[in-house]
Amino acid sequence: MTDSPITNPPDILCIGSVLWDIIGRSASHMTVGADRPGRITRLPGGVALNIAMQLARQGMRPALMTAVGRDAEGTELIGQCQRMGLATEFAYLSDDLPTDRYMAVEGANGLIAAVADAHSLEAAGDKILRPLSDGRLGSADAPYPGPIALDGNLTEDLLARIAESPLFAAADLRIAPASPGKVERLQPLLKHPRATLYVNLEEAGLLCHTDFDGSEGAAAALIARGAQRVVVTAGGDPATFAQSDGASATACPRQVMVTRVTGAGDTFMAAHIVAERSGANAQDALARALRIAADYVSGETPL
């Protein structure tokens, strides 16, 4: 027996980490062991949530599929998500697992160090995918046909099963690696016929087991390894979109003063999704996403 389909479906599903970001930022240049004055903030974060927040800012109605604890931190986090216009009814709420957290230190020279505690998301496993199989959003016989933003904080085993799952066979699948340390988890999804992979230059190198001088070579190498669509960013250097049919675009981000780093890649990905969904061509979509990401990094976009 399956649940009834929902009457007001979301515009996009965001599957992955939804947690609290605890970020320490200093205006000073920092190295390992540095102790500098700055500000410490706690904000809603996680790759899936960062993407969803940016999608909502640009007029979409995202739904979160994640694991959140039924603890005080989880209750507060779900409440904040709802106030931002994000659909939370598909989130798996656990009585046993605590709400996840991410901690980072950023200096004027960028990210110094970070620790991601997504153990509850990993422990929940495929429980977070139930709405895709129980009839609320889809089933194996009638898979969800819309866009899905998927982040690499899921376990390697679950990501491998998603790559083969009929539940994702009709989706417009947009994939974020979460971090260079987790990007190799995405190898099973690299050749997914409906996937767009968003990576930076370092992550592209890890997937291809080589180093690249620029995004164009990295994008071409990923396509040669079987990817259908990729977007490769390279910090302040040109970013590249490439597709298996030969279509491509390259654009250079404008130079800005960096005031924050955490969430920049997620903001870029969300902006690119919105641009493509609105009908922008490859060049315009890439340029628009770079512009919005630059606004975020410079602090022009409010948190």
Task: Produce the secondary structure layout.
Elements: E1 12-15, E2 19-25, E3 39-45, H1 47-57, E4 62-65, E5 67-69, H2 72-83, E6 92-94, E7 101-107, E8 110-117, H3 119-124, E9 147-151, H4 156-164, E10 172-176, E11 195-200, H5 201-208, H6 215-224, E12 229-234, E13 237-243, E14 248-251, H7 264-277, H8 282-298
Describe it.
It contains 8 helices and 14 strands. With 303 residues, it is of the alpha/beta class. Strand 7 (101-107) and strand 8 form a beta hairpin. Helix 1 crosses helix 7 (264-277), helix 5 packs parallel to helix 6 (215-224) and helix 7 (264-277) packs antiparallel against helix 8. The model has no long low-confidence stretch (mean pLDDT 93).
* Structure class: alpha/beta
Mean pLDDT: 93
Element-by-element helix/strand order = EEEHEEHEEEHEHEEHHEEEHH
Biggest β-sheet: strands ordered side by side in the sheet: 4-1-9-10-11-12-13-14
- Tell me the count of domains: 1
Helix content: 25-40%
Q: In percent, how much strand structure appears in the residues?
A: 25-35%
Instruction: State the shape.
Output: globular
Instruction: Please give the largest β-sheet.
Output: 8 strands, mixed
Q: Could you give the distance between the termini?
A: 42 Å
Assign the CATH class: Alpha Beta
CATH topology: UDP-N-acetylmuramoyl-L-alanine:D-glutamate ligase
Question: Key features?
Answer:
four-stranded mixed sheet; UDP-N-acetylmuramoyl-L-alanine:D-glutamate ligase; eight-stranded mixed sheet; alpha/beta; 303 residues; globular
